[in-house]
Amino acid sequence: MGNSLPYDPVRMWAWRILQEIDRSSSFADWALDQAFCESPDLKPLDRAMISEMVMGTLRWRGRLDVHLQQGLNSRDKKVDPRLLQLLRLGAYQVLFMDRVPESAAVNESVRLAKAIFKNRSIAGFVNALLRSVIRNKNRDFFPSFAERPVDHIVQFLSHPRWLAERWVKEFGPEAALRVCAANNRKPPFTIRTNTLKITRKDLQERLLEEGIPAQTTIYSPDGLTLAKSPDLAKDTLFQGGMYFIQDESSQMIPYLLGPRPGERILDVCAAPGGKTTHITQLMENRGEVYALDLIASKIKLIQENCRRLGVVNVLVMEGDATQPLPFPKGMDFHRILVDAPCTGLGTLHRNPEAKWRRKPEDIARLSKVQAAILEQAHSWLKPGGVLVYSTCTMTPEENEKVVEAFLAKHPGFQREDLSPEARLFMGPLISADGFFRTYPERVVDEPGRMDGFFAARLRKT
User: Are residues 167 and 214 in the same domain?
Assistant: First the structure.
């Protein structure tokens, strides 16, 4: 990109995307994708730098604020949110981006402030505060983990206090520390082979020919972890439907459901269609899969993914799963997947903006939604049929307690051991109490780190 502008356009893009994430409550990866679609001429190195600055600023917001606070004359001083985002962006470059000279981080932030605010005093404030961050960058401002584990996690590992307190209590201080540290690392780029079109071995070889080494996943028979992210707009393998971007933990859920060719399956809350298309993949495109979701734009996304992947047996429907489902009387399903909306606390390494948005009260609110969805979905299951309930969060209120409350209310259902086929390759992911659970160990350990997922398999007797 040229430098004729009075500011660095790469940093301006990063600041604008951070503003958009705050304004619209959109996911960071979606906001980045939208920005890159609007500017197809951005060079790969520019895209990479924008992505790192946006995601890094979100991941480390708490620690960045500690450093910035040290330079303020008054701890109670209120800073304009737009300016605060610019300061965080500059501080991230100073503290975490070794390849960016400190002087460049400060000078470019000042130029950005002049262009955005058109106020010399604000530009001077930015200059002074970021230079204070440089002077103090090696000072230890942070509480001792041994003495104050919650405060250490909040400030040093950049997590909201309510969440640090919860995980220290539930997982223990050491495990909570490791989970929160893992949340600040870049997640693996994992894909699911679309075996309707290609084998995993052949896909791995094709990727290598394109200069992208890939390792087979530890548990999923269909997964590959890529050494680097491909340019999806230009990747013929992606555009040709050879794979779907999907975390390894998510790839396990259709195997727990155990769909078979010729069956009729219902996927509730189906967008963006990863599990829907995996289900039909396991059914060899034979049978019927009904994919239900609430939002029209997400319905289109499921349809687009089905077309790209060559899926032909999915009927996509719009509907609110907390209300009576839009099926004719007498219709039933062999298997139902309820991949419920949740707090998403198992995906914070992938969606760092979520840890600053979520509140403790969201857990109780969403557990009621989850219970309502189960209440509507279960009655459409055939006798002897299987229902799998899953989430990508790590709270008992949204996981075990939702299942336990449902079973107490519906004695015609029982929780059963996970399928023998699934146990063959995912045994370590099955807890002693019979649930599928990847946390806390598998959200931390390398290699094979994955999202925090939960699932239970229920059968209608």
Answer: no
- Entry pTM: 0.94
For the cut 90, the answer to whether the pLDDT of residue 446 exceeds it is: no
| Run of H or E including 351 | none
The phi-psi region of residue 53 (left if phi > 0; otherwise alpha if psi is between -120 and 50; otherwise beta) is: alpha
Please report, rounded to a whole number, the percentage of residues in the chain having pLDDT higher than 90.
85
On whether both 226 and 301 belong to a single domain, the answer is no
- The Cα–Cα gap between 206 and 214 comes to 10
Instruction: Write out pLDDT tens, residues 253-300.
Output: 999 999 999 999 999 999 999 999 999 999 999 999 999 999 888 899
Domain for residue 448, yes or no?
yes
Contacts of 304 (CB under 8 A, 6+ apart): none
Cα(364)–Cα(354) distance, integer angstroms: 17
Please tell me whether residues 425 and 314 are part of one structural domain: yes
Residues belonging to the active site:
392
Q: Is 184 helix (H, G, I), strand (E, B) or coil?
A: coil
Number of structural domains the chain divides into: 4
Domain that holds residue 387: 248-460
